Each structure stands twice: as C-alpha cells, then as structure tokens.
C-alpha cells in the first residue's frame, strides 16, 4: 500500500469504529489496525499515537457540522455577536457529539497542536480593535478555546463549583456571554 493509502485506511477504519461504538476508549489500536488491514505499528508511525489518530477521526466526523461555523464566521452580524454565536455553536456541536469528543479533550489540551484558537483569532481581533496587542489577542483566543474544552471535559466538577450546568443550553449560552464580557471588557 502507498503511504496515503495506509494513512487513509487507518483514518477510515477509525471513523467506522467510532461511528459504531461511539466511545473511543473502547476502541483499541489493534482493532483499528485489523479494520484497516495494516500492521499495528503503522498507527504510531503515521500518527504518533492512537490518541492522535482518534482525534483526527473525530475531526473528520465533525466536519459536516463545521459548515455551520463557517456560515457564522462569514456572516454580517457584529463581531461580538459573531464570536458569541461561533462559541455557542461550537459548544452545541461538542455536546451533541459528547461520546466522541470527551475522550479526545486531554490529548487536544495537553499534546495536540494549538489549532482551534486560530479559527476565532480574527473575530477576537475584530472585537478588540487596536486596544490590545497581537499577543494579547492570541492569549484571549487561546483562553476562550481551552477554557471551553476544559469545562466540557470537567462538566460535573464545573457544575459543583459554579452551579452552571453546561449540558443545559440556556446556562451554557449565558456562560459564554459572561466569558466574553470578562475577556473582551464589554
């Protein structure tokens, strides 16, 4: 098999297993390799770890819903409203696919490339204008994304600590409004 064929086979096999099982923790690297028809070592060779491969496969599954985020990013509403709608929709997608996304959060937060903040950085800059430096805008974008991931992952503890249930859409939406006010000084 060609390099791209092996990689694609591993990704497709992982997507299929995730679609069937809905829980990445129950899927083993051996199952993925068997489903793809490749040697087990190919997972680490091409993706560095099973977690990296699973994270990529979850991203593939979520790509369809990502179109909703593109529509928001390109909309003509105010920058603050656009950023709020983007974060709310992103959290809705995350909650809708909780069984798939929750197990990937530790990898994304601790080992994965910092990618998601780049999606909201232009909106953060628009909201802030020239009041803050490039570095400050990047920090705010990172805070918004990483905090969102962390409260999703630790939703039970976050509920105990704050009384905010992020699984409740109204409470989650209000939380993002509050976070944006705090970080953007609105």
From TrEMBL:
Any single Pfam family the record assigns to this protein: TetR_N
Sequence ranges assigned to domain HTH tetR-type in this UniProt record: 4-65
Gene Ontology MF terms: DNA binding
Annotated region of DNA binding: 28-47
Keyword line: DNA-binding
Keyword Transport: no
Matches recorded under InterPro entries: Homeodomain-like_sf (IPR009057), HTH_TetR (IPR001647)
Keyword tRNA processing on entry: no
Protein name: TetR family transcriptional regulator
